[in-house]
Every structure is written in C-alpha cells, then in structure tokens.
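Final report, closing paragraph on structural work. Over the funding period we assembled a curated collection of sequence-structure pairs, and we close with a single example.
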Amino acid sequence: MNKHIFILLSFALLVIDSHAQKSTSKQKEDPYTKQVQLLTKNPHVQRAFAIIDQLEPTTRKEHIELNQVPAPPFKESVRAEYFRKMLETAGADKVWIDSVGNVLALRKGKKSTRTIVLDAHVDTVFPEGTDVTVKIKGDTLFAPGISDDTRGLIAMLTVLRALEKASIETTDDVLFVGTVGEEGLGDLRGVKYIVEKSKIKIDVWIALDGTAIDQVINGALGSIRYKATITGPGGHSWGAFGIGNPHHAMAKSINYFSDAAALFTSSGVKTSFNVGRTGGGTSVNSIPFESWAEVDMRSESPSQLKKIDSIFKVSMKKGVSEYNQKVKQGPPLQLSLQQIGYRPSGATAESSPLVQKVFAAARYFSVVPQLAIVSTNANVPIAHGIQAITIGAGGKSDHEHALGEWWLNEKGADGIKFALLTLLLEAGIEKGK
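Its predicted structure, as stored:
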C-alpha cells in the first residue's frame, strides 16, 4: 500500500473513532445528574438550602421536643396530634389525621397531575412508660427513638418549612405523611391504609427512615409472622398423665419446621426463620392447657416467602397430627395458626427513574450511594407497583431500638437538603410563588 494512502486511511479511522466515542459519551450522559445540576442552580432551591442551614437551631429544638412526646406501639395518638400542630404551623394547604391515626399534610402543586409522598413514621418500638427524655452529652442527643424515627419526622417538617419560606411551587402535589404502625406488630398498618384503602392515588412514595444518605433502600424485605397455639384439656402431671400435652406437641412441630426450614434456606435467595417467643402452662406439676409460639419468617423474594410459609404450616400440622396418634386418653389437641404480621417483599428496580434520581441527588452531596434491602414503609407501595424507596434523614446514629439510642448532628442539614432535592426531582418545580 502507498505510504501516503496508509497515513490518510489511519487518520480517517482515528477521526471516525473519535466521533464514535463522543457519540457514545453523549448516549451515556446521565440525564438525572444534569437535572440535579439545573435544580441546584435554581435560585429558589439555593434559597431553600440556605433556609435549611438557618433553621438548624429550630430543627434541633423541635427534634428534642417531639422526641419527648411518647409514641408507644398502638398508642401514637398523642404524638400524632402534636405533630399535626407542627405541620400546621409550618404551612400546608390542608392538614388532617385520618381514621387509623396517620397525620397528613397536603401541599398542592401547580398542575396536580401526580401525588408524591414524603413519609416518616410516628411510632417507636418502646412500650408505654419508657423514659424518652432527651439527654445531651457533648454534641450528641441520647434518647429512645431519637433517630428511629423522630429524626425522619423533623427532617420532613423542615423540608416543608423550606418549601414555604423559599416560596417554591412544585408541579405535582406533595403529601407529607406521618404514619402509624411501622414498627413491630404495627404491621405497617398506617401505610397499608393509605395505599390499599384510602382514596388517595399515590404515584411515588419516598420514606425517611434511618440517617445515612449513602444508603438507598430499594428492596423490600418481606416477612410473615404467626402465633401458633396448641390447646388441650390440661390437668395434673400425675393424675391426668396420658392426656395430650400441648408443650410436647409444640416441640415436635417446631422441630419438624426447624429441620425443613434449615434445609430450604441453605440455598437460593436469602430467607430466614425464627421462633422468637414461646409460652403457656401454669406450673411445673401441671399439664398445660395451652402452648404458644411466635414465629417470624423473612425473605427478599416473594416466592421464597410463600414457600417457607407453606413449610411452616405443613410442619406444624404434621407435628400435631403425629403427636395426637399417640395420645392415650382424652380429646386430641387442637392447632390454631394466627397470622400476626405480613410485610410484602419486592423491589423498585435499580434502573427505575426514581432510584437513578436518588443516586444523582446523593452524588451531589459527595457520597457514593449503595442499594439495600430492608423492611420499611416502602414495602407496601412497592408491592402495589408504586415506585418507592427509603432514604436517610441525615446525621449519624446508632443503637436504634435500644435504650441507648443516640443521634449526632454530623452534616445533618445535608440529609434534609438531600430529602428536599429528591422530592423536587420527582415533584418538579414551576417557579417561586
């Protein structure tokens, strides 16, 4: 080949390759990062961020005040009413408490074609009578519930204040929700009511739970919980010997379940099982008339959760049936399985617009976002096909669900700005009011 022709061809190939790389680069350009850049340059958003910084003393004061209003399981009404007044003071078009105790504040958008929820839960895990007084040691707040989820409620409240004070008008409606029943046997009853029974059509659900803003919970860890009860006539350990003993039957049934469940969970998508509480009986020398056990099963996969649920039921029935065959006298023992909790599993896809927007928002605050699978309020909307995620409300915390729970204001304002930015990426921004 002629040397000059070879040089010309090589140059042409380099030009073509350069254009191809530029084209690929444009195709891979993240539209949500660009959207974040545009939003954060908006003067109204910049003002809202500045307001969040200015409100830090107020946010801290209200954080302490709200935490000292008890909210034990199923008795959240006092805190709900207190929080309702806080939302009214912050400003919203309508604030109310629904029939199950959720606190809701609607802020109308310019077009109101969609409804975006920003949620945190009102309840705590701590029983009635727990001392929830906030103790301040250095720069750290110590109190049961100070992080989970009083911080989420206060971050949400400050987001509302910032929107109002910065005169930001969103495109879509924003519904601020303080839900009841997120913890324990509350069984997500607050979010279940809103999603499944209320007339509110939800398009996107953003939950504030936890503090770290580098963790994006897009996976719903599902769970099924039962109280298994075996009953019989009961009697004296000597005089009535030979009648069915519910404790013995329960032990056989749980053993069958434990063996079968251990084999099932040894492979495949992570699934767990646990017998958490047992009880029954009146004295060491009495055959009990009742034996009960509370069982928790969890999985990242809806199908796995369904399968281990079936294993549990089959094992319990098998154990009682086999035991009854050897009862020498009296009536057979009876088994009752009461479902005391159900949290659906599922996921909002990593490729979904919501997750990608949250990733872009997190990167703005110089953190590397990581996906996680946890049981939160987002479980319910995810199960109903609604895009939902759970994000942290800022700061640093530890010992949640323990009396030594603490929260530290380490870049706490960034968490509130992160929540606001995530909200605006979904709800849109029209202009200042």
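The chain has two domains: 34-221+345-432, 222-343. The chain has a mean pLDDT of 93. We thank the funder for supporting this effort.
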